[in-house]
C-alpha cells in the first residue's frame, strides 16, 4: 500500500507511513497475519489502544479502509 502513496504530498506520506508503522508494531494479531483473516473486532481493539480525538480517529479509519480495499 505504501508504494501507491509515494506521489502524494510529503505530509500525507509521512502521516500514512506513521500509521502503517503503528499498525505493524501494535496490531494484536501481529504484522504477519493475512488480511483476509483480520476481523473487525481486532481492528476496533487496535484503534481503542490510542487516546486520540475524532480527526485522528477518522484518519486511522480511512487508512484502514484504504489498506483493506487496495
What does this molecule look like?
The chain has 70 residues and is mostly helical. Helices cover 60% and strands 0% of the residues. The protein has helices spanning 10-26, 40-48, 54-69. It starts with 9 loop residues before the first helix and ends with a helix. The model has no long low-confidence stretch (mean pLDDT 90).
Helix percent reads: 55-70%
Strand content: under 5%
N→C terminal distance: 7 Å
Tally of helical runs: 3
| Element order: H for helix, E for strand | HHH
Shape: globular
Q: What is the mean predicted local confidence, pLDDT? A: 90
- What is the alpha-carbon Rg in Å? 12 Å
Low-confidence stretches: none
Largest sheet data: none
Helix/strand class? mainly alpha
- Give the beta-strand count: 0
Question: Brief overview, please?
Answer:
With 70 residues, the protein is mainly α. It contains three helices and no strands. The longest helix is centred in the N-terminal third of the chain and has 17 residues, at 10-26.
List the helices and strands and how they pair.
Elements (H helix, E strand, L loop, with lengths): L9 H17 L13 H9 L5 H16 L1
Amino acid at each position: 500500500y505504501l508504494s501507491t502513496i509515494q506521489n502524494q504530498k510529503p505530509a500525507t506520506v509521512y502521516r500514512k507511513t506513521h500509521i502503517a508503522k503503528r499498525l505493524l508494531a501494535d496490531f494484536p494479531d501481529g504484522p504477519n497475519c493475512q488480511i483476509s483473516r483480520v476481523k473487525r473486532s481486532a481492528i476496533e481493539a487496535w484503534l481503542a489502544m490510542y487516546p486520540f480525538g475524532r480527526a485522528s480517529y477518522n484518519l486511522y479509519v480511512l487508512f484502514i479502509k484504504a489498506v483493506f480495499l487496495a
